[in-house]
Amino acid sequence: MDARAKKLRMRAWRRGIREMDLILGPFADRALADLSEPEQDLFERLLEENDQDLYSWVTGAQPVPDAYASLIARIARHTGVPEA
Q1: Taking CA 60 as the corner, what is the angle to CA 28 and CA 38, rounded to the nearest 5 degrees?
Q2: What angle do CA 26, 27, 28 make, to 5 degrees?
Q3: Are 46 and 54 in contact (CB under 8 A)?
Q4: pLDDT tens digits along 19-45
């Protein structure tokens, strides 16, 4: 794993709320190596978002911004959260 991927993985596991650690951490562990460079860029931007927003997007409680729609759907599928 390269330095960038390690950094993204660490950031995915060390969120502000434990729920997002448990959603994004395992996703990063298993899927990060399969993400293209543009997808890694998007994942990095996603990690800048507020945890409460991320949680509501992944769980389908709030609409997902178009820019993140495919990545959030992939994360939700990975975690077993039913799509809204």
Answers
A1: 40
A2: 90
A3: yes
A4: 999 999 999 999 998 999 999 999 999
For the question of whether the overall pTM of this predicted structure is more than 0.85, the answer is yes
Q: Set out the domains of the chain in order of their start, with CATH numbers.
A: 3-79 (1.10.150.250)
Tokens of 40: 């890694």
- Cα–Cα separations (whole angstroms), residue 12 to 3, 29, 49, 84: 14, 9, 12, 23
Mean pLDDT of 11-15: 95
Tokens of 25: 């951490």
Give the helix ranges, DSSP H, for 1-84.
Answer: 3-13, 18-31, 37-46, 51-59, 69-79
